[in-house]
Amino acid sequence: MQISVCAGRWGNAGDEGSGALQGYARVGAKGLIPSPGWAGTGAPPASLGACAEGPGAVPSSVGGEMHSGGLGAWVGAGPGDNHWSYEEPERWGEHYPACSGNKQSPINIETEKTIFSPELQPIQLSGYSLPNSKKFKLKNNGHTVVLDLPESMAITGGYAQQYQAKQLHLHWGSPSTAGSEHTVNRKRFAGELHVVHYNTKYENFKVALGYPDGLAVLGVFLEVGPRENPYYEEIIKHLQKIQGEDEEVMVPGFNIAGLLPDSLHLYYRYNGSLTTPPCFQSVMWTVFNQTVMLSHDQISVLVTSLQYDDGKPLQNNFRPTQALHKRWVLASFEPTLSRERQVPTAGQTSSSFHAGDVLAVVFGVLFAITALAFMYYVYKQRSQNARLDSPTKSKVIYTAATTENTA
């Protein structure tokens, strides 16, 4: 089914959703359905972000300097104490009004309520393999560990526009708790990687923050696996050098694509926000369906190495999940393929229910039916033979009829 999305307008602060797109998407001969950004009820949308034009709830010009740290780590964006804390995330809205908006991230993804969108194409990347000869800054910004990324890295497919890379960072828990930001059916994973990009149709990252299609973030769930992950080790092995807040080190380039899952065509998409203050609602999220494995030791180093400026361990740096407020969560894959298998629970290595799994079930059922039919046939044959061998039949002698007997 081919779907085209028409232009719409972004509402003012008084509109439902504070910047909800008031347009419509045409679905073949079915007529009009609410457009992807629409925050109301009704028929499900076809895709997200196709009509994302113009300023939304976030002002197009944003004051302050962008902190080099985690997604949304911002200096000078609001009054009062700008050094926000994960200890009281429910109070972020007191100094950063957008944090109280109704398009906030992260969210809990309820797989049974996601909507399949055939327009969601595989994520395509460019320039993700960084040369080992070049150095890139890795920093403890007091909220997370951040790796600055070069302008040569970009998302070239899977979104309506091209998005240029800005930085990547991680979220984690503690030695005894999981720490992903997004959850799936209320399951929280060991950690989560965010690779942050901005829309190249805007002048720079700061300008892009003011638009609902300004940022694209790739989210990857991390789990504990049996082996060391060589790509994540390129980050983890340097953490002891940046234990204190604002400490940084230059690290050689490596293949950033190795940090992502193999299946870049299986993901969820929704409109959301920065997951830290100032919480601007300018992010088109891609959360991959497949997890990435790190060894137990790697996860342990990740959650115990960094510290805040007061020397306390930097742990549990994730925001609680936020309410959907009638937003749609789209899936790039068919929702009919047993959702329990599409997104992994803790300890599983893969989330996809492949065609081979379906065929295996079908052949298994056919084999079971054939076996039952054969057993029934054997049972009937044995029953018949038993009757022929009974005492009442054993004394009867059957002889062929002769002409003499029949005369």
From TrEMBL:
Source species, domain of life: Eukaryota
Pfam families: Carb_anhydrase
Reactions catalysed: hydrogencarbonate + H(+) = CO2 + H2O
InterPro entries assigned to the protein according to its UniProt record, in alphabetical order: CA_dom (IPR001148), CA_dom_sf (IPR036398), Carbonic_anhydrase_a-class (IPR023561), Carbonic_anhydrase_a-class_CS (IPR018338)
Residues annotated as domain Alpha-carbonic anhydrase: 82-333
EC number(s) recorded for this UniProt protein: 4.2.1.1
Cofactors named for this entry: Zn(2+)
Chain segments annotated as transmembrane: 358-379
Gene Ontology molecular function: carbonate dehydratase activity; zinc ion binding
GO cellular component, one term: plasma membrane
UniProt keyword annotations, A-Z: Glycoprotein, Lyase, Membrane, Metal-binding, Transmembrane, Transmembrane helix, Zinc
Similarity remark: Belongs to the alpha-carbonic anhydrase family.
Function: Reversible hydration of carbon dioxide.
Name under which the protein is recorded: Carbonic anhydrase
Organism: Anas zonorhyncha
Lineage of the species this protein comes from: Eukaryota, Metazoa, Chordata, Craniata, Vertebrata
